[in-house]
Design brief:
Blueprint lengths: L5 H6 L1 H12 L16 H17 L2 E5 L4 E6 L5 E7 L19 E3 L2 E3 L7 H16 L7 E7 L7 H9 L5 E4 L2 E2 L3 E4 L1 E10 L6 E3 L9 E4 L4 H11 L3 E4 L2 E5 L14 H11 L5 H10 L6 H4 L3 E2 L3 E2 L1 E9 L2 E10 L5 H13 L4 E8 L2 E2 L5 H14 L7 E3 L11 E3 L2 E2 L13 E3 H18 L2
Parallel strand pairs: 3-6, 3-7, 7-22, 8-23, 9-21
Antiparallel strand pairs: 1-2, 2-6, 4-5, 5-24, 9-20, 10-18, 10-19, 11-12, 11-17, 12-14, 13-14, 15-16, 17-18
Helix pairs in contact: 2-4, 4-12, 6-7, 7-8, 11-12
């Protein structure tokens, strides 16, 4: 048992909040090669800042492979416990939907608002300062504890793949990038484009990321009055602006598209209804619509461990080439090949070709796995929650990157998921509670 840790954890609350404010101020959205860095200058600044924070806390730090990843380590021994998270964030989306500026953190009503507070800067810092509390309490670690800071999690995972090529892999670990108590299964993550030549003359672009339900889609083309009438008939929210008609949706993470309203889908439905057609518009309307499970294409696709297939239309671009960008979360026991075959066949009916962008294999650990049993014991003892069971998720965390690894917190069951959405925020008392749980977890895993 770990005794007398509370005062050391309490002492880390203010430094944790201050460090998080510093990190959130850095707009670490991926910008390919910007400033000469692999994922842009802002992400590099966030990486250097995180390593500086860790160094000040007493960790041995290393800036890896020209900015692909960072390492902060403490302890000694042949075995290594990995704590894996990321410093990049998704774009803020429509700024008018924010009550605060996304990269100017504001504390209000016990919450800290800002992009990255939940995903994943806040949770990573909670784990980092948890280990600092253990260090200050004089705990000797029987394993090395290595924090691995990724920089490309929201796009293509090139950071963690480079790490795996170049560095020692932990024997076990967790990723603080999900919800407590823990995630024992993560669905397969398939991101793809459907493409075809644009023979319609329709021009349209919308959406900002594969993995975010688009909350706005702008139409600047012809017959705007007819479009507005149809939107009214359909009950779809929109507004006029100086450029055209802006169809409104509601942002959500692509792993739970049913919690959002897809503005691209709604715009396409209305355009199709007034006779404005293209390959992409027809495909979206006739094959998917607003169905987050794409039942027309895949039928009732689900399994017992992880639930239903989910599909999100993240982006559309109708230029010389029509392109739909899709994010789909596949049940852990469903073969990818069958999904690709069905989607390719459906797309081909509209003159669209399937082009894979990224694929992450699912993970599935049995409930009697030692990592799950250890972390659940810690969580139950220190959260007071003796009821909630481990869950499956459509999210994709770095738990997939190494063996014997699960996603563990930092969001609690009663806490609103705001990652990838306007007004992303962290409940500070819960972040401090997560820090406490992480401290006990690290202690248990390094005995």
């Amino acid at each position: 048992m770990l005794e007398n840790i509370d005062s050391f954890l309490n002492a880390q609350q203010a430094p944790l909040k201050a460090a998080l404010i510093e990190l959130v101020r850095i707009p670490s959205v991926c910008e390919e090669g910007g400033g000469g860095y692999p994922f842009g200058e802002a992400i590099d600044q966030a990486l250097r800042k995180a390593l500086h924070i860790a160094g000040e806390l007493g960790f041995r730090t290393r800036y890896g492979e020209g900015g692909y990843y960072g390492i902060a380590e403490i302890g000694a021994g042949t075995e290594m416990l990995g704590i894996l998270g990321h410093l990049d964030v998704v774009p803020p989306g429509k700024l008018d939907d924010w009550d605060t500026r996304p990269f100017d953190p504001v504390e209000k009503d016990g919450m800290l608002y800002g992009r990255g507070t939940q995903d994943d800067k806040g949770p990573m810092l909670a784990a980092l300062f948890a280990v600092k509390a253990l260090m200050d309490a004089g705990v000797r670690f029987n394993k090395r504890i290595r924090f691995i800071f990724g920089t490309d999690e929201e796009t293509l995972w090139r950071c963690i793949n480079r790490y795996k090529e170049k560095e020692e892999l932990p024997k076990m670990g967790f990723s603080p990038d999900s919800r407590f108590p823990l995630t024992y299964a993560e669905k397969g993550l398939l991101q793809l484009h459907l493409e075809g030549g644009n023979e319609s003359g329709v021009r349209l672009a919308g959406g900002s990321a594969f993995n975010a339900v688009p909350d706005m889609a702008l139409y600047e083309g012809e017959r705007q009055d007819d479009l507005a009438d149809k939107l009214d008939q359909l009950g779809f929210e929109y507004r006029w602006n100086e450029d055209g008609i802006e169809v409104n949706g509601r942002a959500a993470h692509a792993m739970v598209p049913e919690e959002g309203i897809n503005a691209i889908a709604r715009l396409c439905i209305a355009l199709h209804a007034i006779g404005i057609e293209s390959k992409a518009i027809s495909f979206i309307v006739q094959e998917i619509g607003e169905d987050p499970n794409a039942t027309r294409i895949f039928g009732k696709c689900a399994d017992e461990p992880s639930g239903k297939l989910k599909l999100n239309i993240g982006k559309i671009d109708l230029g010389k080439v029509e392109q739909i960008s899709i994010d789909s979360r596949l049940p852990v026991t469903v073969p990818k090949e069958g999904i690709v075959a069905r989607l390719s066949a459906a797309a081909a009916n509209y003159g669209l070709e399937y082009k894979e962008f990224d694929w992450l294999e699912p993970i599935y650990l049995p409930l009697d796995h030692f990592m799950i049993e250890t972390l659940m014991k810690v969580y139950r003892r220190h959260s007071g929650d003796t009821v909630t069971e481990p869950s499956a998720s459509g999210g994709a965390t770095y738990a997939r990157a190494i063996n014997n690894c699960v996603a563990f917190g930092a969001l609690f069951q009663d806490e609103l998921l705001t990652e990838h959405q306007p007004n992303e925020r962290a409940m500070l008392k819960n972040l401090y509670k997560a820090m406490e749980i992480y401290a006990h977890a690290v202690f248990a895993l390094t005995r």
